[in-house]
Amino acid sequence: MKQLTLYEKIGQLLMIGIPEDQSDQWVQHRMMTQRIGAYILFKKNTPNALTTQSLTNRLHHMAEKSGIAPILIAIDQEHGRVVRIHKGMTRLPAAYGLGRLNDPVNTFTACKIAGQELRALGIHVNFAPVADVNTNPDNPIIGTRSYGEHPEKVALMVRYAVKGFQDAGILCSAKHFPGHGDVAIDSHLALPVSNKTIENLYDAELIPFQAAIAEEVPIIMTAHIMYPKIDPKWPATLSPFFLTQLLRQDLNYKGVVISDDLEMKALNHLGPISDLAVQMILAGCDMLIISENLTHDVSIDDIFQALVDAVQNNVIPESRLNEAVERIFKLKKILSQKKAPSPEIINHPIHVEKSIQMMREIFLENPHSHHFPVPVDPNRLLIITDVLEIRDILPDLKTNRLFLDPDQPENDYQLFISGMDEIFIFLSKPTWLKHLNSIQLSKYQKIRFFSLNNPYIQSKIQIPVTSYINLYADCLPLEIFDGLIFANLNKNNK
Questions:
Q1: How many other C-beta atoms lie within 10 A of the C-beta of residue 144?
Q2: Which of 32, 123, 275, 333 has the fewest Cβ atoms within 10 Å of its own Cβ atom?
């Protein structure tokens, strides 16, 4: 610690994204001038596994050249809705699907596979598992990213997720402390407010985090959420009560606390982001994420300089700075104790086979799974969806498709279904139900409804549904399940 300059210490506190249009020289500048030692990757950086591996190799080489190695490279690869690397990796079930199976061994296996493949790509940190309890049906951001609605079950799944990642040799992060599952606003867009008391949190939201802490989870990510009955001044990410009193002292957490993204609009009205960054460190955050992925109006330079000034002016005590840096160094020491697996493990046939088996179990767990496969004439089948990727998922399935359009008059939908015996609806957003609930069906027509996102959507469907399957937000990719969902379809039929 005594050998580090102030810039080198501040550089350890920041985890930054890499803008899509920026070259290696941009990263080299950050490493050389600001000594930034952690980087987070997004979909724009990771079109496939091979490109991702090339990028991480360059980052490690630049860190060696800049004299700041080892660095941390992080990603959000939750599986389900939140996947940054789509191509070349084993596709795994979403958390909600695993929660439905309620088998911790499956959760351990899925997280171990995910961790092994990421580590083989040169990635050190996966921001998973989601430890939020999905108790609000109108939650727009968590939903199927959670293991479920019951705190004890979520806690069990989180415990085995942490075990799986640890066994793979990758650092994982329980998120979003103290809980993001019971809000109705997406913190990417505005500041959610929860009226829960501290007793309420102990009864539900904190239970999975306590399980993660018991498994020595190395990182916990904060939530940009306001709890006015607990801290009327600061949201959790900036709150000394939540991060120091509750998390550090009461829950006895020893690992790294990292902020959620500083570019999220939940923070916009609270003051200059550079000032908020100082407050986050004072409150108990050890690292701050600046994604360069959302608004692009948060200045890394301003935040860096604000932290330097705060230490020099004794606003941030040097002891607090050293404490954060020491925790980050412990993360790097954990990584050094486990060798990364060979890249040959990525998308390995054994991984794929295990994943397909878990997905099939999730599909068959659904009460309506016995309805499938459905023999149907492709000329008399209509697929209605709000997911444009359906065209890529089933490119060979030659049948009638209707992509929901906000400018389409609701009455026009009636025209599309005439003459169709079977109507398959693949829906990700409940807002489209108002367009579909007015459909009039003949007694001969059948609707097979597939929910791709919201586990509560079934209660909002007003049209008569013959069968309902929750695919848990891309947890059950159709290219794997078309043999279970579709039958006797001539895919060459034009």
A1: 29
A2: 333
> What's the structural domain count of the chain?
2
CB 217 within 8 A of CB 173: yes
Which sign, positive or negative, has the C-alpha torsion 220, 226, 231, 234?
Answer: positive
64 plus 104 within the same structural domain: yes
75: left (phi over 0), alpha (psi -120 to 50) or beta: beta
In sequence order, the β-bridge partners of residue 39 are 16, 73
* Residue showing tokens 């959507």: 457
> Which of the 8 DSSP states describes residue 226?
B
**475 and 372 together in one domain:** yes
Residues with Cβ within 8 Å of 8's Cβ and at least 6 positions away in sequence, in order, are: 35, 68
167 Rama sector, left if φ>0, alpha if ψ -120 to 50, beta otherwise: alpha
| The Cα angle at residue 324 between residues 318 and 327, in degrees rounded to 5 | 140
Judge whether 115 and 172 are in contact, CB under 8 Å.
yes
Distance from the Cα of residue 438 to its chain's centroid: 34
Distance, in Å, from the CA atom of 153 to the CA atom of 316, rounded to the nearest integer, reads 40
Q: Which pLDDT score, from 0 to 100, does residue 473 have?
A: 64
Helix, coil or strand: residue 400: strand
* Residue 388 covered by a domain: yes
| Catalytic residue list | 260
- Side chain identity at 282, as an amino acid letter? L
Q: Residue 401 belongs to what domain range? A: 368-487
The residue among 317, 350, 383 that closes a domain is: 350
Considering the domain architecture, whether residues 106 and 224 belong to the same structural domain is answered as: yes
Query: How much is the pTM?
Result: 0.91
DSSP string, 325-356: HHHHHHHHHHHHTSPPPPGGGTT-HHHHHHHH
What ranges make up the beta strands (E) of 267-350? Answer: 287-290
In a domain, residue 492? The reply is no
Which DSSP symbol is given to 391? H
Along the chain (494 residues), what's the average pLDDT of each consecutive run of 10 residues? 92 92 83 95 94 95 94 94 91 92 96 97 97 83 89 97 97 95 77 92 97 98 95 96 98 97 88 95 97 81 96 96 97 90 95 93 90 86 84 71 80 82 88 83 89 80 90 70 74 48
| Cα–Cα distance measured from residue 456 to residue 135, given in angstroms and rounded to the nearest whole number | 10
Angle at 118 between CA 115 and CA 121, to 5 degrees: 150
Q: What is the secondary structure of 120-172 as a DSSP string?
A: HTT--EE---B------TT-SSSGGGSS-S-HHHHHHHHHHHHHHHHHHT-EE
Which residue type is seen at 152? Answer: E
Q: Where are the alpha helices (DSSP H) in 262-317?
A: 273-283, 300-312
pLDDT at 494: 42
Looking at the DSSP bridge assignments, the partners of residue 126 are 75, 172
pLDDT of 281 reads: 98
Answer yes or no: do 167 and 39 share one domain. yes
Whether the bond into 70 is cis, omega within 30 of 0: yes
351: tokens are: 């991984």
